[in-house]
Amino acid sequence: MFDAVFFDLDGTLVDTEALALRSNMRVFAEHGHPVEADFLHEMIGKDEPAITELLRETMPGLDANQLQADLHRAFYEDLEAGLDLKPGARQLLDGLAVPAVLVTSSGRPGALRKLELTGIHAAFAGVITLDEVTRPKPDPQPYLMAAQMLDLDPSRCLVFEDSETGAEAGHRAGCTVVQVKDVVSPTGRWAHHIADDLLAGARLAGLAI
Q1: Given this model, what pLDDT does residue 46 score?
Q2: What pLDDT, on a 0 to 100 scale, did the predictor assign at position 171?
């Protein structure tokens, strides 16, 4: 049915969003700007430049660059203590009969470290990160690049995402999008299928896993 499957990383394959929520709340409080979870939910799926812009708009006078550096440090310190795959991730990756490409808004070093910590690097025919694109999600460029990498029509490709930002990117690229619930429930605006977990999403999309 599909010629390839493209996966987002954070919140889709690896359980980083909940980890980031905890570490981010701690760092914001340390900077004298305690925030609620709803504010942090706005950051999900965004790349670092977009997050910096959000911080500057909502917290005038804040040293956004220093805060970003501290958020990054705290997150990766917590990450090294342990990173879990999302339910069904390994079974889905192991059961695919077509190539998989990772398409993430993380930078390449961070993305590769997450793949190393979870042992799933070998599952991917290619990896596209924030460092390879000029127009990140929600622009379709990252998913169009993934299709081009495999010389495929995007309409023949399936995307797994958790965030609205990522689902929009996949949809606008012309892919079929499965949006999997994470810390924020999907609206369904950009998804062809909404699922509680990866394996349920695979079944909805017609994958034989």
Answers
A1: 77
A2: 98
Over range 1-23, report the average pLDDT: 92
Strands 176-180 and 193-195: what pairing?
parallel
What number does CATH give the domain 4-15+84-205?
A: 3.40.50.1000
At position 101, the amino acid (one-letter code) is V
Q: Is the pLDDT score of 103 beyond 90?
A: yes
- In the chain, residues under CATH classification 3.40.50.1000 are 4-15+84-205
CATH 3.40.470 fits 17-80, yes or no: no
User: Could you say which of 3, 8, 15, 78 is catalytic?
Assistant: 8
Query: What letter would DSSP give residue 85?
Result: B
Q: Give yes or no for residue 68 having a pLDDT over 90.
A: no
Instruction: With cut-offs at 50, 70 and 90, classify the pLDDT of residue 104.
Output: very high
CA distance 189 to 182: 16
Q: How many CB atoms lie within 10 A of CB 180?
A: 29
- Whether 10 is catalytic: yes
**pTM, two decimal places:** 0.85
3 state DSSP class of 7 = strand
Whole-Å CA distances, 26 to 18, 23, 62, 163, 209: 13, 5, 16, 23, 39
List the catalytic residue out of 10, 15, 162, 182: 10
8 included as an active-site residue: yes
pLDDT tens for each residue of 36-61: 888 888 877 777 788 888 888 888 87
